[in-house]
Write a structure and sequence with these properties.
It contains 24 helices and 28 strands. It has 975 residues and is α+β, with helices and mostly antiparallel strands. Among the domains are: 67-189, Beta-Lactamase, CATH 3.30.450; 403-518, Beta-Lactamase (2-Layer Sandwich); 666-781; 802-867, SH3 type barrels (Roll), CATH 2.30.30.60; 873-955, Alpha-Beta Plaits, CATH 3.30.70. A hairpin with a 4-residue loop joins strand 6 and strand 7. Helix 1 packs antiparallel against helix 11 (516-523), helix 1 (2-84) packs antiparallel against helix 13 (608-641) and helix 22 (887-904) packs across helix 23. The chain starts with a helix and ends with a helix.
C-alpha cells in the first residue's frame, strides 16, 4: 500500500513540475511570438512612416518656405518702401508706420555694426544685435540679399514669451532693416497640418504605443506628452526637452534595431529608424505593460485549460486503475490505455481548438484596437480639416490683402512711381505674377507687362465684375476662385483701393497671383493628404465613404473615387459609426472598423487572411508545448499502470476502495464531476465579465462589442464567441439555481420538494431551448421562419407519424433528463437487464447481458426503466426451508457455511450474507440471502449463489420443500 501511495505522490509531483516547466516555456514562447508580432508591425510602421515622411516633410518644407517667403517679402517690401516713399524717413515714427502697414511685430533699423538706430517697439535690454548670434543679419551688407529667417524668444513686460522670426535686408550702405514677425500664428498653422506632431501623432502602434522623433542634437522633435514632466504637461516642439533628461542617449540608437529602453522610468520596447536627410531618429515605442498584457491574455486561459487536462488525466488514471483492480484482471497498462485513449485524444483535440480560438480572439482584439485608434485619429484630423484649411487660407489671404493694401498705399502716396518699371520691380519684390493699376473707370492704365486697356466687365456673371466694388469705395477684394478667362493663364487676383490726396477713390491696384500660392499650403490639410499618409499594420488600408451618397471619397485605388461603394460589395450595414465586423469587397474578405467624421465614414480594413495567417503560427506554437506536456504525462501514466502490484496489496486495495458501499466505482462519473466543476469555475468568470463588462472592460474593448451584440449575425468569430459566452452564462446561472433548490429541499415539505423538482426541470428545459434559439439567431438562422416551419411540421407529423414524434421527443427527454447514459446497465420492464450501447434520436441500442445479444428498442417503448449504474449492485435470493426444520439449527449451519460459499463465488464484491426469514409460503419458510457484485457480473454471481445455496442444503441434509397435495381419507375412499 505504501508503494502505491509513493507512486501516486510521484505522479502528482511530476505533474506539478511539468505544469510549471510548461508555464515557463509557454510564457517564453508567447513572449517571443508577441514581441515578434509587434516587431513586424513596428518595422512596417517605420517603413511606411519613412515613405510618408518624404511626402509630409515636403509639406513641412513647403510650409516653412512659404512662411519664410512671407517674412522675406515683408522685409524686402519694407526696405523698398523705406527707400522709395518720399513721406518716410529713418525715424522711429517711420518704423512704427511700417510696422502697422505690414502688420508685423516690430521693424528695427540697425547700423552696419548692429546698433539700433530706430525701432517701432522698445528693444529688450538683454538683446544686442552686435552679438555673434546676429552676425547673419550684419552679413547682408556684403551679400546684398535678404538674410535667412532667425528665431528668437523674447519676454514682454507681463512675463509672456514670444517667438519672433527675424529677417534682415540692406536698405543702404549704412543701414540694415530688420523685420520681426510674431510666429504664434504661423506656429499654430504649422502644428496643425505640417509639423512633426501632425505627421507622427497618427502613427500609433498597438493600444498605447506611439511614434516619436529625436534629433541627433539630443532634442525631442515630437513626443505625445512632455517626456520629462509627464503626461499632464503638453509637449511643445519649440520648447523641446533634451533626451538626456529622460535617461536616453542617442549614441545607443542603432538603425533597424529593436530593444527595450527606459524613458523617464517607463519601460518601452522600441524600434529605430534613422533619416539621414534630416539627421533624425524615428522611433516606435510600445509600453512593456502592453506586451505583458498581450501575453497574459493568452497565457492564463491556455494554462488553465492545461491544468484541467492534466488533472483530468491523473484523475482518470486513479479511477481507471481503481476499476481495474476491482476486476482483478491482468494487463493494467492495456486496460488503462483502452479506457483512456479516447479521453486523452479528445483532450488534445479540445486543447488545439481552444488554443486556436483564444489566439484568434486575441489577434482580432489587438487588430480591432489598433484599427479603432487609427480610425478615431483620422476622423479627428478630418473633422479639423476645414478649420485648418480656413486658418491657412485666412493667413495667406490676410497676407495677400496686406501686401495689396500696402502697395495701394505706397502708390497712392507716390503717384510718380506708377510706372511700368516701378511696378515690375515691386512685382519682383512681392513675388507676384503681374501688377495692374486701374483708373476710376475700371480700365488698366499701367502694368508691369503689356497688359493695358483692359476694362472690368459689366456682366455680373463675369469674374472681373467682382472688382467693380473697388470703384465705389470697397477697400479690398480677394478673388477666392481662380479666373481662367481673364488673362492668358489661370491666376488668383487680389485688389486694393487707391485714393487721392483727399482720400477719395482713385482706382485700384490689382495683383495677379499663382493659384498654387494659396492652394499648395492647403494641400497638407486636405482630406486626401491626411488619408494618404495612413500606415497600417497587417496590410491594413483606409478608405472613406461619403455619408450622403455612399460614394468613395478616398481610396488607395483612385479609379474607385466617386463611385458607389455598393458596386464593390461594401454592405449597407457597415455604413455606420463604430461598425466592427467582416465585409467582402470584390471577393476579398476584410476585418473592418469604421468611425464617422463630420461628412464621411472612415474604414480601416485588414485582410482577414493576414489575421488568420498570424493566428495560425501563434496557435501552433502555443499548442505544441502544451500537447507535448499532455502526451508526456499520458505516456508516464501508461508506463506506471503496468507496474506489478502484490496480490495482498491488491486485495487490500479492493477492500479499501470498495468501502462500506461494497459496490462498483465508475471512473467516468468522477471525471464528469471534475470537468463539471471546472466548467462551473470558467462559466462563473465568463458570467461575471458578461454582467459587469462596463466596469471590468474598456469601453472600446472587442469583448464589450461582442457582449453588446451590435455586430452582424452570421458564422463568424463574434457570433461564435457570443454563443460561448451565452452557453457559459446560462449554464452557470442554471447550475447555481439548481444547487440552491437542492439546498432548500431539506427545509421543505414533500409538496415543496415536488415543486422544486418541477421548477428545476422547467428551468433546465427553458434554458436549453432559449440558448439553442438565441445561438441559432446569432449564427444567422432565421428563427422566426424556423418556428413557423416547425409549427407546420409538427401538425403534419402529429397527424401522420405520431409514433415517430413520440420516439424523438422521448429520446430528447432521456438525454436532457439524464435518466441513463451510454455505458449504464438498466432493467427494462422488470424483465431483462442490458447495457446501453447507444442512445439515438429514435431508438436505443441495448446489449442483453444474459444472452449477449443486441436489442434495438424504440425510445417510446422504454417503460419502467431501472438504472443500476448509480450505486452498488445487490442480489437478493430466497430459498425455502421445511416447516418441520428447526430455525436455530439451520441458522447455525448457515453461519458455518458462509465463509466457504464466499470462496466459491470469486466475483462477489461482498457477501453472501444471511439476511433472515423473508416469508412464509404454503409449503416452505423462505430464507433470504444477499450478495453484492459488479454490474457486469450480475448473472454469474446470481447463478453462483443459487448453486452454493443448493450445495449447502445438500451437504447438510436439508431438504428443499416443494408444493405437495395432501389427500384426506374421504378423498381416498372416493378415489
Amino acid at each position: 500500500m505504501k508503494r502505491l501511495k509513493k507512486i501516486r505522490v510521484l505522479i502528482i509531483l511530476f505533474a506539478v513540475l511539468l505544469f510549471f516547466v510548461l508555464g515557463y516555456v509557454l510564457y517564453g514562447i508567447l513572449s517571443r511570438i508577441i514581441v515578434s508580432k509587434y516587431q513586424l508591425q513596428m518595422s512596417t510602421k517605420l517603413q511606411e512612416t519613412d515613405k510618408n515622411l518624404d511626402k509630409s516633410l515636403e509639406a513641412i518644407n513647403l510650409n516653412d518656405e512659404s512662411i519664410n517667403r512671407l517674412q522675406k517679402i515683408n522685409a524686402e517690401f519694407a526696405a523698398f518702401y523705406l527707400k522709395e516713399d518720399k513721406t518716410t524717413g529713418f525715424s522711429e515714427a517711420s518704423m512704427i508706420k511700417l510696422s502697422n502697414l505690414l502688420n508685423v511685430y516690430n521693424v528695427i533699423l540697425l547700423d552696419t555694426k548692429g546698433n539700433v538706430t530706430a525701432s517701432a517697439k522698445t528693444i529688450p535690454p538683454d538683446l544686442s544685435f552686435s552679438d555673434e548670434d546676429f552676425n547673419f543679419l550684419l552679413e547682408v551688407q556684403y551679400s546684398g540679399k535678404e538674410s535667412d529667417i532667425f528665431y528668437i524668444d523674447v519676454e514682454n513686460d507681463k512675463g509672456d514669451t514670444k517667438t519672433l522670426g527675424l529677417c534682415g535686408v540692406l536698405v543702404d550702405p549704412d543701414h540694415i532693416l530688420v523685420v520681426a514677425s510674431d510666429m504664434a500664428d504661423f506656429d499654430k498653422m504649422s502644428d496643425s497640418v505640417s509639423s512633426w506632431k501632425s505627421i507622427l501623432e497618427r502613427n500609433t502602434i498597438g493600444q498605447n504605443g506611439f511614434t516619436f522623433a529625436v534629433s541627433t542634437d539630443g532634442d525631442f522633435l515630437y513626443f505625445p506628452y512632455d517626456p520629462v514632466k509627464g503626461k499632464d504637461y503638453e509637449f511643445k516642439e519649440n520648447e523641446a526637452e533634451e533626451i538626456s533628461e529622460t535617461g536616453l542617449d542617442y549614441l545607443d540608437f542603432k538603425d533597424g534595431a529593436f530593444k527595450y529602453v527606459d524613458i523617464s522610468g517607463d519601460y518601452y520596447y522600441c524600434g529605430f529608424k534613422f533619416r539621414t536627410v534630416e539627421k533624425t531618429w524615428i522611433i516606435c515605442a510600445l509600453p512593456y505593460e502592453e506586451i505583458l498584457q498581450s501575453v497574459i491574455i493568452i497565457f492564463v486561459p491556455v494554462m488553465f485549460a492545461v491544468f484541467v487536462i492534466l488533472s483530468t488525466l491523473i484523475l482518470s488514471y486513479a479511477m481507471i486503475l481503481k476499476e481495474y483492480r476491482q476486476t482483478g484482471k491482468k494487463g493494467a497498462r492495456l486496460f488503462y490505455y483502452r479506457k483512456s485513449r479516447a479521453l486523452a485524444g479528445f483532450m488534445v483535440l479540445a486543447l488545439l481548438v481552444f488554443s486556436f480560438f483564444v489566439n484568434l480572439l486575441s489577434t482580432t482584439s489587438s487588430q480591432e484596437t489598433t484599427n479603432r485608434q487609427d480610425a478615431r485619429s483620422l476622423t479627428y484630423s478630418l473633422n479639423n480639416t476645414k478649420d485648418e484649411q480656413a486658418k491657412i487660407k485666412k493667413k495667406y489671404s490676410d497676407f495677400l490683402l496686406n501686401i495689396s493694401g500696402v502697395s495701394a498705399r505706397f502708390l497712392s502716396d507716390n503717384p510718380g512711381l506708377a510706372t511700368r518699371s516701378s511696378l515690375s520691380r515691386l512685382n519682383d519684390i512681392l513675388q507676384t505674377r503681374h501688377m495692374l493699376l486701374y483708373d476710376k473707370t475700371g480700365t488698366v492704365y499701367v502694368s508691369d507687362s503689356t497688359y493695358k486697356g483692359l476694362t472690368l466687365s459689366k456682366d455680373p456673371e463675369e469674374p472681373s465684375y467682382l472688382f467693380r466694388q473697388l470703384l465705389y469705395g470697397t477697400p479690398y477684394v480677394l478673388q477666392e476662385v481662380p479666373d481662367d478667362d481673364y488673362l492668358e493663364k489661370t491666376y488668383l487676383y487680389v485688389g486694393s483701393l487707391m485714393t487721392d490726396k483727399e482720400g477719395d477713390p482713385n482706382g485700384f491696384v490689382q495683383l495677379a497671383m499663382d493659384p498654387d500660392y494659396l492652394s499648395k499650403p492647403m494641400e497638407s490639410a486636405s482630406k486626401e493628404y491626411i488619408l494618404s499618409t495612413y500606415s497600417g499594420t497587417n496590410s491594413s488600408h483606409v478608405f472613406a465613404v461619403d455619408m450622403k451618397n455612399f460614394e468613395y471619397v478616398y481610396h488607395p485605388r483612385t479609379s474607385r473615387i466617386g463611385k458607389p461603394v455598393s458596386d464593390y460589395g461594401v454592405p449597407q450595414r457597415a455604413l455606420r459609426d463604430n461598425y466592427v465586423g467582416y465585409i467582402t469587397v470584390r471577393g476579398v474578405t476584410y476585418f473592418a472598423v469604421t468611425a464617422a467624421s463630420n461628412s464621411d465614414y472612415v474604414f480601416i480594413v485588414t485582410p482577414a487572411d493576414r489575421i488568420m495567417t498570424e493566428n495560425f503560427s501563434k496557435s501552433f506554437f502555443t499548442f505544441l508545448p502544451c500537447a507535448l506536456a499532455v502526451l508526456l504525462l499520458y505516456l508516464l501514466l501508461i508506463l506506471v499502470s503496468g507496474l506489478s502490484v502484490p496480490d495482498e496489496i491488491a486485495e487490500e486495495i479492493r477492500g479499501d476502495e470498495t468501502g462500506a458501499a461494497g459496490g462498483e466505482f465508475r471512473y467516468d462519473d468522477a471525471v464528469k464531476k471534475f470537468l463539471k466543476g471546472a466548467f462551473l469555475v470558467v462559466s462563473g468568470i465568463v458570467f461575471i465579465i458578461a454582467v459587469f463588462n462596463n466596469r471590468l472592460l474598456p469601453e472600446d474593448s472587442i469583448f464589450t462589442h461582442i457582449i453588446g451584440g451590435t455586430w452582424e449575425s452570421g458564422v463568424n468569430l463574434f457570433s461564435i464567441t457570443w454563443c460561448v459566452i451565452c452557453i457559459c452564462s446560462v449554464g452557470f446561472v442554471t447550475t447555481c439555481l439548481n444547487s440552491l433548490f437542492f439546498q432548500l429541499e431539506d427545509s421543505l415539505s414533500s409538496r415543496g420538494k415536488t415543486m422544486t423538482h418541477m421548477l428545476n426541470s422547467l428551468i433546465k428545459y427553458a434554458a436549453i431551448i432559449g440558448v439553442i434559439f438565441s445561438c441559432a439567431k446569432r449564427l444567422g438562422v432565421q428563427t422566426d421562419t424556423l418556428l413557423a416551419s416547425a409549427g407546420i411540421l409538427t401538425v403534419v407529423i402529429g397527424l401522420g407519424a405520431q409514433s415517430l414524434t413520440s420516439d424523438v421527443f422521448d429520446g430528447l427527454f432521456i438525454i436532457i433528463e439524464g435518466a441513463f447514459h451510454v455505458g449504464d446497465v438498466i432493467t427494462v420492464d422488470d424483465c431483462w437487464r442490458a447495457k446501453v450501447l447507444e442512445i439515438g434520436i429514435r431508438n436505443t441500442r441495448l446489449l442483453d447481458l444474459d444472452t449477449n445479444s443486441v436489442k434495438i428498442v424504440n425510445n417510446n417503448s422504454l417503460k419502467r426503466v431501472v438504472n443500476h449504474s448509480l450505486g452498488p449492485e445487490y442480489i437478493y435470493l430466497s430459498i425455502g426451508m421445511d416447516y418441520d426444520e428447526k430455525i436455530e439449527e439451520i441458522e447455525e449451519i448457515i453461519k458455518r457455511e458462509l465463509p466457504e460459499m464466499r470462496k466459491n463465488i470469486p466475483l462477489a464484491v461482498s457477501g453472501p450474507d444471511y439476511v433472515g426469514v423473508d416469508a412464509f409460503e404454503d409449503s416452505a419458510v423462505m430464507l433470504r440471502f444477499c450478495v453484492s457484485c459488479r454490474i457486469e457480473d450480475y448473472y454469474k454471481v446470481k447463478r453462483g449463489l443459487n448453486r452454493e445455496l443448493k450445495r449447502m442444503f445438500d451437504r447438510n441434509g436439508i431438504s428443499v420443500p416443494f408444493p405437495q397435495v395432501v389427500l384426506s381419507e374421504r378423498d381416498r375412499e372416493e378415489s
